[in-house]
Amino acid sequence: MEKFFYAEALSDILDAKGYRHCVVSPRARIRPLFAAAVCAGRVRTLLNTPRKSRDKNPYKLAFELIDSLKPGDVPVTAWRELHEPGIMGELSATAMRTRGARGCLVDGYTRDVRKLMAMRFPVFARGASPIDTQGRSAVIDYDCPLLFGGIRVFPGQIVFADLNGIVVIPKEIEKEVIAEALGKIRLETRIRSALKSGKKIKRVWDKYGVM
User: Fold this and answer.
1) Helix or strand or coil: residue 156?
2) Tens digits of residue pLDDT in 139-166
3) Which residues span the domain enclosing 46?
4) Residue 1, domain member (yes or no)
5) Which of 52, 61, 72, 122 could form a disulfide with 39 if both were Cys (CB 3.0 to 4.6 A apart)?
6) Hey, is 130 helix, strand or coil?
């Protein structure tokens, strides 16, 4: 999916099917760390909450999730309520990539931005924060439903993220959405070729009904 798909095609197909709450709100400002970042795969969720903690291992649940990742998974992490610490960093990304994760989506902030960009590991976040989570927050659950950027996300769903946005596909319609989105992408390729050849845009619209 990462090579051929783009968020708009998936969003359009979901819209046409009446699924209008599958795209992360642009108002959430969850953006890729670098413009070419693209990731697609199965959602694995991680829920954080602000909490003062002196636990010897405050990362226990996060480690359990990361160590259980399978190739093609995409960790999706969020706060119960938005908080300042960075909940993603270069060492976590290294472990995720090693286990086959396609990227990481963060409804919150990330650390180690320069290192993550140098890795070219696709991370999407609201911004950067050097503040550590230790003593300030705790992971309270994983592989659970959570609210991410204004939409409800469930483990096992397919997520696609690129510079244009983040789209989550409900499991019950994922096969048809992917097939129809691929058809739309192929149609738009033909339309693009027609426009490049000099065809007038009105005539192209009349023929294909897509723009």
Assistant:
1) coil
2) 889 999 999 999 999 999 999 999 999 9
3) 7-173
4) no
5) 122
6) coil
- Two structure tokens written together for 101: 């994760």
Secondary structure string (H, E, C) spanning 18-80: CCCCCECCHHHCCEECCCCCCEEEEEEEEEEEECCCCCCCCCHHHHHHHHCCCCCEEEEEEEC
Contact 108, 126 (CB under 8 A): yes
Q: Which amino acid is residue 28, in one-letter code?
A: A
**Tokens standing for 100?**
């086959």
Number of structural domains the chain divides into: 2
pLDDT in tens, 41-93: 999 999 988 777 666 677 889 999 999 999 999 999 998 767 788 888 999 99
- For CA atoms 59, 61, 62, 68, give the dihedral sign: positive
**CA 163, 50, 73, 144 torsion-angle sign:** negative
Instruction: Look up residue 193 and give its two tokens.
Output: 């070729």
